[in-house]
Automatic annotation (TrEMBL):
Keyword Signal attributed: yes
Region forming the signal peptide: 1-23
Keywords: Signal
Xref: Gene3D superfamilies: 3.30.160.670
Keyword Cell inner membrane: no
Domain DUF4136 residues, every copy: 24-180
InterPro entries, sorted: DUF4136
Protein name: DUF4136 domain-containing protein
Amino acid sequence: MRAATLSAALLSLVFLGACSSYNVTYDYDVTASYGRYKTFDYYTSKKGTGGTTNLMDKRVRAAVEKELQAKGFVMETKADPDFLVTYYPIVHDRKVRTTTHMGWGWGWGYRPMYGRMGVSSSEVRHYKEGTIVIEIVDFKSNQMIWQGAAAGALTGLNNPEDADEVVPKAVRDILAKFPPK
């Protein structure tokens, strides 16, 4: 019984961990000349699966601007920028199944006088896993040169305080590898 309780607790931690952490990945064009990029602007992407609000959009945009400006890039809205940035959410429906076994048994040896009774209970929890994707496109060639994502960054954000804490950190982690060295 203690093992069943322990396994249920561990599965609950796995589920909670899935809701509160994220995994950052990135990819880039190794032939691009990143040293020549100084200015940026935004473009609107048709990608993404929705699932966020205008308030979340403002959070992500503010975090992207702050991180790029901290790296020395300047936002250029009046002339042609060196690169364009877009960001969008991808939201997937996910399920986690937890099963708890509780049982009683008696016996000794391999088989003689061995018996067992028990009850199992399964529960399926549904949640939405949200990912932030950031893409950077060379303005002149119109080719994507860099892409990063934080899978799970928009998962489990139940209030504005959580979002205000997680989104800037996730964007900072995504853009940590831009520009590539």
